[in-house]
Amino acid sequence: MAEPLKDHSGRPVVAVTGYGVVTSLGQGVADNWAALTSGRSGIHRITRFPTDHLRTTIAGTVDFLCDPETPSPVRTERLAQTAAEEAIAMAGFEPGRSFPGMLFMAVPPVELEWPARRAIYRQAGDTGDAYPRMIEAALRHNDRALYELTLYGNVADRMADRFGTRGAPISLSTACASGATAIQLGVEAIRRGETDRALVIGTDGSVQVEAVIRFSLLSALSTANDDPAAASKPFSKNRDGFIIAEGAGALVLEDYERAKARGATILGVIRGVAEKADDFHRTRSKPDGSPVIAAIRQALDDAGVGPEAISYINAHGTSTPENDKMEAMSLEAVFGPAIASVPISSNKSMIGHTLTAAGAVEAVFSLETIRNGLIPPTINHNVPDPSIQLDVVPNVARAANVSMVLSNSFGFGGQNACLVVAAEPA
């Protein structure tokens, strides 16, 4: 009998057997991949709420799944469900309430935003403006659904009920690194032998007026409203901020040997995961880039490879002046002069920044890059930044033999997470 396949540290290899995605580009892997590789943008003018007097009036909202009045947690749940259904079907499991594994779910830090809370006050007949009074109003009206909508973790609980996952669902929020962190937790649970498989979801449907104002006050959003499709310009000299967006990515992770035993198709493997905190500032990164550099190095070490093994880098690439400069500097520190010849591109140039969903969405696109041998471009790269000497795959997709991808996710609050995604092991 052949020995079970282990990684370089003697741990179970973690395979990906299914994935799904929904973004402003469309629903499903096929539609998203076709749009992404053709260089099409999903950024458009906001129609969900009035934008009078707002500095930013564009976003990557997903408007085809929910009506404009849908509360943010319901929209976040709908996106998650859509992506998860595709991932579970691709993995070959029966739809319904019988997924034989754990659930790890990245969700927004505040699932129920204030516009939805105010609607609940009105529905409950309570004019109070404090969270405890909202809970009291829901309980007083004996409305369990209303009460559950106010609780953090509600989205994951509902997904666990819908798909029948095992054990208590894990909700997490590590800012813009959340989707990658959820994948990390799923990988580590399988490596430890706690579960044979995991359903991992990153989801965010929280684009509403409060969120736009909040990020605008941080001067984080682009104000290039005149041409929405051209507003996100990662690594360009004239970049001026990110585009807030919605979406969801879902992956089915499995112990490689168990997946092969049941006849599953292996779509790729998660070779390395890493996370490194940065306590320098609530929104800014440490100027020397040391936490980001450490996260990248730890991911490579966890994968048992050196920088030379990476065929492509799926950048965090938000299009903010500071983030892109920090990411470029950190990659140069890890890869050295060789970084100039490693293709690196940002999906956010087309889909915007899906916040807590981003790491999972971009992991799906990393797997598609490996499987299709085609690197999505960084669009809107018309004014190169002379201080960023990277091959950003400008404007047009590129055919390439990609066997291993470094996918970066860096979030406000010092949350830095990196993944190393690879083709099926030989």
UniProtKB/TrEMBL annotation:
Enzyme class at the top of the EC tree: transferase
Domain Ketosynthase family 3 (KS3) positions: 11-423
Signal peptide location: none
Keyword field: Acyltransferase, Transferase
SMART domains registered for this protein in UniProt: PKS_KS (SM00825)
Pathway: Lipid metabolism; fatty acid biosynthesis
EC number: 2.3.1.179
InterPro entries: Beta-ketoacyl_synthase (IPR000794), Ketoacyl_synth_C (IPR014031), Ketoacyl_synth_N (IPR014030), PKS_Beta-ketoAc_synthase_dom (IPR020841), Thiolase-like (IPR016039)
Biological process annotations from GO: fatty acid biosynthetic process
Pfam families: ketoacyl-synt, Ketoacyl-synt_C
A single Gene Ontology CC term: cytosol
One Gene Ontology molecular-function label: 3-oxoacyl-[acyl-carrier-protein] synthase activity
Entry's family note: Belongs to the thiolase-like superfamily. Beta-ketoacyl-ACP synthases family.
NCBIfam families xrefs: PRK06501.1
Protein name stated in the entry: 3-oxoacyl-[acyl-carrier-protein] synthase II
Organism encoding this protein: Prosthecomicrobium pneumaticum
Taxonomy of the source species: Bacteria, Pseudomonadati, Pseudomonadota, Alphaproteobacteria, Hyphomicrobiales
